[in-house]
UniProtKB/TrEMBL annotation:
This is Protoporphyrinogen oxidase. GO terms for molecular function: oxygen-dependent protoporphyrinogen oxidase activity. Its cofactor is FAD. Its EC number is 1.3.3.4.
Amino acid sequence: MPAPTHISVIGGGLSGLSSAYHLSRRFPTAKVTLLEQSPRLGGWVHSERVHVQDDKGNEAGILLERGPRTLRPNSKAVLELINLLELQRSLLVVPKTAAAARTRFLHIPGTRGLTALPSSVTSLLATPLGRAIALAGAREPLRSYPSAIRLAAEDGDESLHEFLSTRLGPELARVLGSALVHGIYAADSKLLSVRAAFPSLWGLAEDGRGSILRGVLSRILKSRSPEPSANDYDLGEVPRIMQTASIFSFEEGMTAFAAALEKAVIEHPNTEILKNDKVDVVQKDTADGDVTIRTQSGRIVSASHLVSAMPLPALHTLLERSSLPSLPHLTANPTSSVIVVNVVFPPTPPGQPIHPTGFGYLIPRDQDWNASVLGTVFDACALGGQDTYPSVDAPKFTKMTMMIRAEPSAPPVTQDAVLAYLTEHLAPAHPLPRPVYFSANIMHECIPTPIVGHVQRMKELRNAVWREWGERLDVIGAGVGGVSPIHPTGFGYLIPRDQDWNASVLGTVFDACALGGQDTYPSVDAPKFTKMTMMIRAEPSAPPVTQDAVLAYLTEHLAPAHPLPRPVYFSANIMHECIPTPIVGHVQRMKELRNAVWREWGERLDVIGAGVGGVSVGDCIEQGRQVGRAWDH
Ligand SMILES: Cc1cc2nc3c(=O)[nH]c(=O)nc-3n(C[C@H](O)[C@H](O)[C@H](O)COP(=O)(O)OP(=O)(O)OC[C@H]3O[C@@H](n4cnc5c(N)ncnc54)[C@H](O)[C@@H]3O)c2cc1C
């Protein structure tokens, strides 16, 4: 297949922006076009600075977020972008020791006030919730997990609620699991796939034969981390800056991140960004496989390769409108809509804070599994450093963000309604003051929920994309899931005979894992290539072993998260009659051979080699070592 000459990326959210950035670096001579339907890039990223003033004349410039607000330092891809875009100086890092990182609360429906989630062993025993967690945690490794076998199955999966219920009991699963899911997906923990949304929990349970704690222990004993090697990323000094970080953002908010990506994309000589123009139709040119894109304004863009970085349902609609064959599972997941409420309170007298210090609180489902308000982030604690004041010691405003499930039947979200919610949740000692700023914005279908079976469905989607489009289309974005390395780490894989006892590809060795140390690179942290060796039975009737055929085999065997890149080296060599097979009766026959040699030749002839004493190099060397032993006496 031809190398990319013109790549079009549809969707200018963080997925599309980062793919346009990386593609323009990886293929410096190819043209890269990023197409976005709205007038601005960044997708759900939306920071804005508002000027606020109270009736005492205090004022400030408060940075508010309507979309994502904080990032975790565990994503090497994000850390790499911070390094490559030189954003180190604009970072706002919250250390692990800060109260904003350590202290998180729950508001239990039907009660007033907040319950602190345990953050240490002593705090674990201090509250009824902590003691319940400690007790369930102590029992967890002792339980038996008859369903553990499902963990290893290729299509094994269950909902987070089911997973936690089995390990911690249904009540804790409701309280902790549903609150956690509200904080990340604004969704229902009975629907969310644990394998897709919390792969590390799934991996620990897999290692611990069902138990998460046994999994943690086994990892500690084996000192094993499933993380990809940091060497694969160009991280510079960023890991050092992040060493003590719990979460982080940017002084000018998440928009600074999107803006830096946009600037880097546009500065590349071969890239263009087309905003405010929705992609309307995509056509495949049957002659050369190129793609023609038509936008709503009538623009025509042709491309050799296409990246869909828009929500999966939008891709579904686009294919339908384009009369192209549909792809499976694009509309399988529901998408949550939320109302994001930004509130700023005026400075309060000393000793009368609006809320306790901490990250914020989440609200679990009630006994009837209902949810309306999902939680509130105390932005002033973690991200107060984004706000500007006339002087260092000026009195500080309090900003917070409440998330509410957007449902057609829900009452309107007014300032008074939000104040009533906050009064119930925070149970403040003094009535809450009137906010100096209030906004409630509905985010329609903003967070896709990967429901049970998502990982398997995404494999099927990738296979269908590969069958239908080959390398010409890549589908990425929040609805698809995290990226995986090209192959899992390990020695490799073997392929058994099929039901009819046929075999063609015998297996593949992941040489880069075991033997990567043989390869030479210009520097220690240079990005690493991936080498592997596939063995195929050489038979006269077999089709020719071309690069495309091998790529198709690998795609089927590895089911990679993204289409495999074009190899930078490929060779296929036939080894005629290279491995003798010691068939049944071999040992006895070799005895008879040795006796015949002895009778015929005495000590004058010795017969050794792979066909006699074993095919491994060790067997052959051992035979070489033994030969002539009888000659010294
Ligand atoms: C309220 C909220 C809070 C969040 N908080 C956090 C957080 O604190 N931390 C965190 O890590 N994550 C958070 N997230 C999740 C994270 O922000 C998103 O998963 C991520 O931004 C999604 O990026 P994306 O590029 O995949 O999708 P999107 O941002 O949805 O981008 C897709 C883009 O495609 C464009 N598009 C669609 N159709 C077309 C078309 N036909 N032609 C051209 N363009 C098209 C859209 O306009 C859009 O710009 C939050 C999300 C929300 C909504």
